[in-house]
Amino acid sequence: MKHWIEAARVRTLPLSVSGIILGSFYAMSQSMFNWKIVLFALTTTLGLQVLSNFANDYGDGVKGTDNEDRIGPKRAIQSGVITPKQMKNAMILTSVLTMVSAILLIYCSFKESYLLYSLTFLVLGFLAIASAIRYTVGNTAYGYRGYGDLFVFIFFGLVSTLGIYFMFAKEMDYILLLPATSIGFLSVGVLNLNNMRDEASDKKAGKNTIVVKIGGAKAKKYHYFLVITAMVLVLIFAIIKNFNFDQYIFLLAYIPMIAHLIRVSKNTEPRALDPELKKLAISTFLLSILLSLCLIFFFSDIIVQIVNATINHFK
């Protein structure tokens, strides 16, 4: 069980649900909520992330990309604690469970009333599962051709955030594109850090990520663009939505992000980038939580209520 938990890469899971949380709270701010939709959206997204991690372990393992040259933590197949056959079976099981969760999500959202919407999201579900597997598995794995960033941006940014909101509202609110793009960029940023760390071993193994294609120096600039643009887009979203001063509490999440950018700018050792993956992932999750709370709460009102309750307690 310990090895399977490690193979699932638990540290990546909070990042994967950031868009779901944000889209759900945005719907809640408009008096729309259904706990079943949120539950199955979370299980579907987590299933996709775990499937992607299993497939990445399997694909890189059987191709020999995960070898002694790799800097990051040893993968399950690389270390021999899980065999390729066992991992393949786990991928099949995870795919089935994820698809079942996706079907339940679609049913709870649209039931029998929106057949076209149901079919559209069913196709998206199949595409998401296929994309998670094809990232590093097979001779035409798109992760080996530099398209991993696009997959992460589309499915963990746009589809998760906009998709969950659409399931509530049955229509699109295009201003949500701003934070959805932000979550997508930050998710890509985590992948970019991973690829910056593994640049040398990936290049040697023929895994042509964007970092391998453009080089480490330009990859740093690309990383700055992803994180800074994400921060700016959320700020623009807050301004357009006329946030009160106390709703800007989400800016607290910018502090670790700025510190992260400073550490990346000073970095000269790829190995030192490994802890930054977790830090950026947690910062993204924190941003989604704070921004989500800002959509439904006025923190000044909460503070006033706490103060009044304290005063009344001591009277």
Structure write-up:
This protein is mainly alpha-helical and 315 residues long. It has a single domain, classed as Farnesyl Diphosphate Synthase, CATH 1.10.600. Helices cover 74% and strands 0% of the residues. It is built from 15 helices and no strands. Helix 3 packs parallel to helix 8, helix 3 packs antiparallel against helix 9 and helix 4 packs antiparallel against helix 8. It is globular and about 65 Å long. The mean pLDDT is 86.
Helix/strand structural class: mainly alpha
Any idea what the shape is? Answer: globular
Number of helices: 15
Tell me the Rg in angstroms. 21 Å
**What's the quaternary structure here?**
single chain
Largest sheet: none
> Distance between termini?
54 Å
Tally of individual domains: 1
Count of individual beta strands: 0
Low-confidence stretches: none
CATH domain fold name: Farnesyl Diphosphate Synthase
Helix content class: over 70%
Q: What is the CATH top level name? A: Mainly Alpha
Strand content: under 5%
- Order of SSEs, N→C? HHHHHHHHHHHHHHH
In the CATH hierarchy, the architecture is Orthogonal Bundle
Rounded average pLDDT: 86
